[in-house]
Amino acid sequence: MTFDDPTPLIGLEIHVALATDSKMFCPCETEFVREPNTQVCPVCLGLPGALPVLNRRAVELGVLCALALDAEVYPEMQFERKNYHYPDLPKGYQISQLAAPMAENGIMSFTDDDGGEKEARIRRVHLEEDAGKSIHLPGEGTLLDFNRCGVALAEVVTEPDLHSPADVRCFLEQLRELLRHTGASEVRMEEGELRCDVNVNLVHNGEGTPGRTEISEVKNLSSFRGVERALQYEVERHRQALRRGDPLTHETRHWDEEREVTFSARSKEESHDYRYFPDPDLHPVRIPRAMIDDLQERMGELPRARRRRLSREYDLSSYDADVLVGGGLADFFEEVVAEGSNAKAAANWVMGELSAHLNAEDIGIDELPVQPGQLAQLLDMVDSGEISGKIAKEVWGAVVQQGCDPRAIVEERGLSQISDDAQLESLAREVVEEHEDVVRDYRSGKEKALGFLVGQIMQKTQGKANPQMANEKLREIISREGCE
Ligand SMILES: [Zn+2]
Predict the structure, then answer these.
(1) How far is the CA of 220 from the centre of ligand 1 (A)?
(2) Rounded distance, CA 194 to CA 175, Å?
(3) Buried-state track 61-99, b at ≥16 Cβ within 10 A, e below 16
(4) Where do the domains of the chain lie?
(5) 354 CA → ligand 1 middle, Å
(6) What is the pLDDT of residues 266-299, one digit of tens each?
(7) Ligand 1 centroid distance, CA of 149 (Å)
(8) DSSP code of 17?
(9) pLDDT tens digit string along 227-277?
(10) CATH class of the domain defined by 421-483
(11) What is the Cα–Cα distance from 55 to 25, expressed in whole angstroms?
């Protein structure tokens, strides 16, 4: 019997806070504040007689989220009441969707840690409202904060298509990027804007005795590291159970961040019967085709598609395309290329000098006082041999400080490359006379000696000599004199 290669089957239920200004069914603000219970009203507190009014923006952002996941958005959806009692849910039910969700049958592709392309099917994307927050103080009881109660969420449910804790982390990181890109959510992890329930079991179909474990679900993980560590723990727990021949029981578990273990939830928490039924206060919601088309159009090119296009269109490595898109530098890069620069040179400069400057100054690309056209001008001067790569870095330093045109700086400081034949000839002759011993070394076959002589010319001209021409000039003089 071998249990070496059982496959983990991992599915996710991800709750994402949509980037609305107000809550899902009332005008209360959603901006994160520390002061508890300051953003509440009769609707989100569930007071008798208060009626919900659907936030149109929540629907639009939910649709964006579904479209980003390539899911089918239905023309009509229905809100239902999910009934359960918990102190942070004052109405005694949560408004959610079950039988008629907003969207189903999506797919998300992602890149794993080894650069492999993978995908996970998206079972459904539905809208629901968030609950409040219970704060348990040891010895002092439980405090309740309803600021979060009623905040618009999209719940994304995947099929169990993920097969390792690391893949789940990659999936979530790239989901976050996607949601930020579309503007559906800002996904501020520290404010709990992405929370995840994971379900996992192990299936062994290989040699020996086939077997599987029952699904366990770990609830309410709010960091990528927490998700990955909890899953590592669970996969190992299932692996050992399978080895023992113990199928485990279907259960809900919690993650203890401190001790890095999962533990079983009390069984009464599991025996939920939510008694869903259509919310009589909310009509079925029609989502017009025109709205879906409009959102699709405004969403533009998604990050993964853009990576693929950049590497295809500009012949960049997938690493370079990743850095440009992931670092938010792709727009600037494409504008530089549109100004006529060589794509590879533009990519190198944007990922190198430009990116280093942003890091050093701790600023975003939109705060950079340089226009794409100015960088294009600089690269053009390097390309045409007007200035050397070394001088270009000096000019760039001035451009980012002063925001003026590179050409103006080159002229003002007299940095143009020396490509004048007669001038280089006399410089080369000077250097050859001054370093007879090195010239001798070169003649005796030490190719490196020439580099030293070129360096001398560069020194005499403060780096302005055209190194290629200086090189040729030196060879010419040395071989000519050798024949005399
Ligand atoms: Zn409210």
Answers:
(1) 24
(2) 10
(3) bbbbbbbbbbbebbeebbbbbbbeeeebbbbebbbbbbe
(4) 7-292, 301-413, 421-483
(5) 45
(6) 655 555 789 999 999 999 999 999 999 999 998 8
(7) 8
(8) E
(9) 999 999 999 999 999 888 888 888 889 999 889 999 988 655 555 789 999
(10) mainly alpha
(11) 6
